[in-house]
Specification:
The complex is a heterodimer of chains A (500) and B (285). Chain A has 500 residues and is of the alpha/beta class. Chain A has 16 helices and 20 strands. Chain A has a 7-stranded mixed β-sheet, sandwiched between helices. In chain A, strands 9-8-7-10-11-19 form a 6-stranded mixed β-sheet, with helices on both faces. In chain A, a hairpin with a 2-residue loop joins β2 (42-44) and β3. In chain A, α3 (99-115) packs antiparallel against α5, α4 packs across α5 and α11 packs across α12 (323-336). Chain B is of the alpha/beta class and 285 residues long. Chain B has helices at 46-65, 68-84, 86-95, 101-116, 122-126, 157-169, 184-195, 211-220, 234-244, 267-271; strands at residues 27-31, 37-42, 128-130, 136-144, 147-151, 174-178, 204-207, 226-228, 250-252, 274-282. In chain B, α9 links the parallel β8 and β9. Chain B is globular, with a radius of gyration of 19 Å. The relative contact order of chain B is 0.18. Classes of the chains: A alpha/beta (500), B alpha/beta (285).
Chain lengths: 500, 285
């Protein structure tokens, strides 16, 4: 991390040419561990039930376009039933259960996730397209850790907020995205349940399977029926849930556009709301940064999870003196990224999550070319079936370009330069978003000075895309409000009435 | 009383540390509980509101950059000035028909002092370090969200204003306040207190006039980060919140507690208008 002086190449050294052949032998993860049902009902009142809507939709593997299963599409009547089940469970058991008992249920879920983590990881990669090494090493450990962390809070809530009486809010309606399907379910469920609320969760349309498997885990953990309900479907199901009169709190993670729609939907209702929305994070590299480490951080910042990350470092700001060096190294590094089969253990960049998302990425990348930015893509052979997009760099980017302003949510990096720290701050904050930022420098005082000036909820220094259950996460400005993770992540699920 | 002719005050707006009339040239009659004409107060326009937001934005970074200790001292100074104007506030509240003006003035001053003291304590209570798995020093600190639109409640006029404004600005936000309509002269006098309290111009901007007229523009202003709608008439709330979503404004209302109850003051009234920033700082030899 810090002994970088030795790591940096001597100025005169010529870049090491990559070997001619980067072909790797396939290292596929077996899918035997996963048993996918033909179709999945809704998880309501502790059981998987047929949808009253009588509608089903297919869910596929985005890397192959193979059909995986049919999933129930919850209609308004189904959402009614789920909310009613959550309300019953809240009134009859969960709200009055001692925190220490709620804690034990959450510990059970954490343990079971860890026990079945390989199965979950494979299913996550099959349904969402993310590389297995990422679902295995990031999504699953973090999801289990999140339940474990909040489990311990359930009987300690009165220590979290001084001089108040913390009480649960009631029934929470939670809508989650497709980029980290299980992890986002964990982020939503764990604090809500620890605080004594019951939940209706709506997974994303394209990635319902791990949430439904989590439903099984919750069933096996003997949670009282109705404490967690899972309704699958698309936008209409989500809108039926967030607009439902029977819920007291809405938590949404997804695009800023949909977030605004939900905020409008809830206007005047008095319901509690938290939003975790889009981002256009700046990753700022100073001249004195440990360059090789920064290259890895920049790559991780934008190509991790195919760039389907709300806090992705999608704008790279480089101090001018190191621009050429960094760009050369980035291009070299991109050439070594392995794009392809998500289930191959060597894969760095997997499949784009859906055809719709691929269309959006292509459209924005086309706009970058049309507006005059210079595109670079490494030579890489993309599979013929499935949804794929090569890792992409743009140079010669102006702040007014769409690729510098709009969230692409794909493996596309826009590179800009700066000359002074003040200019870096100005450019970094020149966006309606404010979710995250990255700072690369060897100077500790500069890290803190820059961090203070970033209008963003999470600031990573000499690292990027790090997450931890104890670390609060959430945005400034149009990246949303409320925090998930840490002590602060409890607050959206509690009423804090003053102690008399 | 002698025969001396009284020097009457012109009730103006307070924007950017100055006391302009409304650019629109409009005023409205302020009458006491007994119907007596007290003043023609400035009736702020959309343009005045935009000027106020601009002043608040310009002042925000400097106000936030002051040391927390200094902000606490400045806000304490406001309480000192309020104390010196007890008589003026008291008579304005009496004219507005408040039963026990003395009690309200005292409560407003005490509330202001209570919040002033939070300036250099808040981060210790609501921030902290987070024990992450990895070699990072990870900490979370509260930061101002930026410009806050405060819709002051009509009731109680002075205590309500103090209870909403103090938590809005103590941590480094700046504010545009739509004054309560029942006793707008209290807000005018409060501006005069602020102007003599070392509060930098623009940190607080006070607009008298019609909430119904101004609220949609405040809610829709893209350079306002948050709204305290405690004093928003309930029939306007839904529309205001729809408009506020355009730039994802934070929307807050005070807990429904008797304003004289100690439970009406809380550090969470401050944090409702703040952001929490989490920093991952590397650790290494």
């Amino acid at each position: 991390m810090s002994d970088t002086k030795d790591m940096r190449p001597a100025p005169a050294a010529t870049p090491v040419a990559p070997p001619a052949d980067w072909t790797y032998a396939p290292a596929p993860e077996s899918t035997d561990i996963v048993r996918i049902e033909d179709r999945y009902g809704l998880f309501i009142g502790g059981e998987f039930v047929e949808p009253k809507s009588a509608k089903w939709f297919p869910t596929i593997n985005p890397a192959t376009e193979d059909h995986l299963a049919d999933v129930a599409e919850a209609g308004p009547e189904d959402v009614d039933l789920a909310v009613a089940a959550a309300r019953d469970a809240y009134d009859s058991t969960w709200r009055d259960l001692p925190g220490s008992e709620r804690a034990k249920y959450l510990f059970r879920i954490a343990r079971q996730l860890a026990e079945r983590s390989r199965e979950f990881a494979v299913l996550e990669s099959m349904n969402g397209g993310k590389p297995i090494k990422e679902s295995r090493d990031v999504d699953l450990p973090l999801a289990a850790a999140h339940f474990f962390y909040y489990a311990g809070w359930a009987d300690k809530l009165e220590y979290a907020f001084p001089h108040v009486v913390p009480t649960p809010i009631g029934v929470a309606g939670q809508v989650i995205p497709w980029n980290f399907p299980l992890l986002m379910a964990a982020w939503k469920l764990a604090p809500a349940l620890a605080a004594g609320n019951t939940v209706v969760l709506k997974p994303a349309e394209t990635t319902p399977l791990t949430a439904l498997l989590l439903g099984q885990v919750i069933h096996e953990a003997d949670l009282p029926p109705g404490v967690v309900n899972i309704v699958t479907g698309a936008g209409a199901t989500g809108a039926a849930l967030t607009g439902h009169d029977g819920i007291d709190k809405v938590a949404f993670t997804g695009s800023t556009d949909v977030g605004k729609t939900i905020q409008r939907q809830l206007a005047g209702s008095g319901k509690r709301l938290t939003l975790e929305l889009g981002g256009k994070a700046a990753n700022i590299v100073f001249e004195d940064a440990p360059i090789d480490q920064a290259v890895e951080g920049v790559v991780n910042g934008i190509f991790f999870n195919q760039g389907h990350v709300c806090c992705a470092g999608s704008r790279l700001l480089v101090e001018e003196p190191v621009f050429e060096e960094l760009l050369d190294k980035l291009k070299d590094r991109l050439q070594t990224l392995r794009v392809g089969d998500p289930l191959d253990k060597n894969t760095d960049v997997g499949a784009i999550n859906s055809k719709q998302q691929l269309t959006k990425i292509r459209e924005l990348v086309d706009s970058g070319v049309e507006e005059g930015a210079e595109i670079y893509q490494p030579e890489c052979v993309l599979p013929e079936r499935g949804f794929w997009f090569a890792p992409t760099l743009f140079t010669n980017v102006s702040q007014s370009h769409r690729i510098a302003r709009e969230e692409i949510f794909g493996p596309v990096l826009s590179i800009l330069t700066f000359r002074t720290p003040e200019e870096a701050i100005e450019k970094a904050n020149n966006t309606p978003y404010g979710l995250s930022a990255g700072i690369w420098t060897e100077k500790g005082s500069r890290i803190l000075w820059m961090a203070e000036r970033m209008r963003a909820g999470v600031v990573w220094a000499n690292t990027f895309n790090r997450f931890d259950p104890a670390s609060p996460f959430g945005g400034y400005k149009e990246s949303g409000f409320g925090r998930e993770g840490g002590l602060h992540g409890l607050e959206p699920y509690l009423q804090l009435e003053g102690r008399p | 009383m002698s025969d001396r002719l009284e020097v009457r005050r012109t009730a103006k707006l307070f924007i950017g540390g100055e006391f302009p009339r409304s650019e629109s040239g409009r005023t409205f009659e302020v009458r006491g509980a007994d119907g007596e004409l007290l003043a023609h107060a400035a009736r702020a326009s959309r343009k005045d509101l935009r000027d106020a937001v601009k002043a608040a934005r310009s002042a925000q970074a400097t106000w936030a950059a002051k040391t927390a200790y200094n902000r606490g001292q400045i806000l304490y100074r406001v309480a000192e000035m309020m104390e010196g104007r007890r008589g003026q506030f008291g008579s304005e509240l009496r004219e507005a028909g408040v039963d026990d003006p003395e009690r309200e003035v005292s409560a407003a001053i005490d509330r202001w002092v209570w919040y002033a003291g939070w300036a250099d304590k808040l981060a210790q209570v609501v921030g902290g370090t987070n024990p992450v798995a990895g070699s990072y020093f990870n900490f979370t600190l509260p930061e101002p969200t930026g410009v806050v639109g405060v819709v002051a409640p009509d009731e109680p006029p002075l205590l309500g204003l103090a209870s909403r404004l103090a938590p809005a600005i103590v941590a480094g936000n700046t504010a545009v306040v739509l004054a309560g309509e029942r006793a707008p002269l209290v807000a005018v006098s409060f501006g005069e207190v602020l102007a003599t309290s070392d509060v930098p111009g623009g940190v607080v901007n006070l607009l008298t006039g019609s909430k119904t007229e101004l609220l949609p523009w405040l809610a829709g202003h893209m350079d306002v980060n948050a709204l305290d709608l405690t004093g928003c008439p309930s029939e306007l709330a839904a529309d205001v919140e729809v408009t506020a979503a355009e730039n994802v404004k934070r929307v807050h209302r005070a807990a429904p507690v008797d304003p004289y109850d100690p439970r009406a003051q809380s550090p969470y009234e401050i944090t409702a208008l703040l952001e929490m920033k989490t920093v991952w700082h590397p650790i290494g030899a």
